[in-house]
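Researcher: Here's a chain I'd like modeled. Treat it as a single chain, no partners, no ligands.
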Amino acid sequence: MSQDKVENPKSIDLSLNSLVQQIEKQNSNLSVVVARQFCYKLAQTLVEVMISEPRKFNVLEEFILRASIEFTPLPTLKELSSVLGLDIVFLQSTAENLARFKSLKILPTGELKITPQGQESYKQGNVSLPPQVKQIYAIADPFAENLTFQFEALPSGLVDLPDLGELVAIENHLPTLNSLALTDIQPLIQAAGLGLHVPEEGKIVTNFQAIGKPQVCWKTISIFVLLDVIENKHIIQIRQDKQVLEKASNWLTELEAQQKFDLKHLGRILPENTPVSPSKPKAKRQRSTTKKSQK
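Model: Modeled as a single isolated chain. Structure tokens:
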């Protein structure tokens, strides 16, 4: 990319001055000529997930289940109370919990009978707790082409930054949340590190449901144009904070090479952050074959 592609003087947002200085200090051959912040639309949806989770049996639970397997005839709470020397009240409460977990059946005669589910749980050494319901937020990012999950909602207010969509058309190729299967959602929730879907610990998201309509939120990114004084060329970088988004940077570089995006538009944006409409039609982003996050 030749040096005359970007107009002088430099076009740098005040909020990015510190990062610009850091880049130039660490790379003596680079000069930042453009550093501008933009925003683009995200879709945020409240999602309700159901979670199944096991826990280890305590000593008393394990004894009652073992007795219901090994004793002939079937034991009663009174008999177990006598064997253990415990007040029957403690055994009654524990047996009722096991019955609620579908691991034990208390017969009308007072006998304790283990259920098929209880036998399986006894072999594994844990009991399945009643399902939990949690609410999280699904964030659909059409620019990064990914779907992520988090506990906290993003702010929905307007951002006082130029809209990236005024410079390039960001087409949304992400599937709708309701069109996804549970098996599509589970690894995404696991990757988010929320502790809701941890198969190795037996913690499983068993169902999900979108609540209400998606809400529009805004995300901030920065576009940098760096002049390599040795190679005498410009380098385009798209950043989120200090992270360079390689895929997005390459995409914008390709559009510039195809003359579908003019870097001069970056330098001509007014100081008040008013977007300037490009003289050429908006460059359309091509469908990606991956939905992975930018790295």
